[in-house]
Amino acid sequence: MIIDSRHNGPPGSGNGGWSAGTFAVAAQNAPLPTPGSRHPRPDPDPVQVTLRRPPPLETPLTLDAGEVRDPAGHLIAEIATVAAFEPVAEPVDLATARAAAADYPGLVNHPFPSCYVCGPERADGLRIFPGPLAAGRTAAPFRVPAGADVVTTWAALDCPGGWSVIAPGRPYLLGRISAVVLAAPRPDDECVVTGVLVRAQGRKAEVHSSLFGPDGGLLGYARATWIAG
C-alpha cells in the first residue's frame, strides 16, 4: 500500500480518512460494493482503523495480522472489526448543506489548508467544506469525482465529523475511525455529508458522520475519535 502525495492531510502525511479507508479495504477479504450498487456489504461487522502514527506519503506500507507498518517497522495503524453500530449524523437537504458550507470556518482559518478532503487551497481535492448547523452539527455538499470508490467514501466521512469539534487555535487530528459503506457514490452526483459531535472529554472527542446520495438514501456512515493537537 502507498498513500500518494495527492491524498495528504496535514503536510507530509496522509489524510486520515483516505489512509484508513486504504488500510480497511486492504484488510477485507469479502467483496466490496461497486459504484452505483445498493447492496449491503456481505460482512456485517464494521472495520475500525486506529492510527498510531501519521501515515507517511509515497512510502510502501505492509499489512500483516491487522497491523500496518512502514519499511522501518514502525506501527502506523491497527485494524480490527467491531460490533455493528447505527448511523447518528442525521440528513439535511442540499440547500441546507450549501448554506452551511458558505459559513465553513476553514475558509478563513484552517489548520491544514492543503488537506485533500477539506482544504480550501486544493482545487484538485474533494472540496468538502463542512459548515456549522445547530448543536454541534455540520453539513456540506459533496460533488463526487470521477473514479470515486470505497476509499473515497471513507475520506468523505472523515473531515465533516472533525469539523464538529475543531475550533480556532485548537486543531484536532483523526485518531480512530470505523465506517460502514453501504454503496459507493456515483461520479458527478451531488451528495450531502453531515457530522455531529457526540461527546468531548479532555483532548478526545467522539464524532459521527453520514453520507447521503442525491435521493437522500444513506450511502455510508462512520464514528470516529479525534484528538486535540
Name some characteristics of this structure.
229 residues; alpha+beta
Query: Roughly how many Å apart are the termini?
Result: 27 Å
Q: Percentage of helical residues?
A: 10-25%
Tell the overall outline. globular
Assign the structural class, choosing from mainly alpha, mainly beta, alpha/beta, alpha+beta, or little secondary structure. Answer: alpha+beta
Kindly report the oligomeric state of this protein. Answer: single chain
Outline:
The chain has 229 residues and is of the alpha+beta class. 14% of the residues lie in helices and 30% in strands.
Overview of this structure, please?
Helix content is 14%, strand content 30%. It has helices spanning 16-27, 94-102, 150-156, 159-162, and strands spanning 47-51, 62-64, 67-69, 75-81, 131-132, 137-143, 172-181, 190-201, 204-212, 218-228. A ten-stranded antiparallel beta sheet has the order 2-3-4-1-7-10-9-8-6-5. Helix 1 (16-27) packs antiparallel against helix 3. The longest helix is centred in the N-terminal third of the chain and has 12 residues, at 16-27.
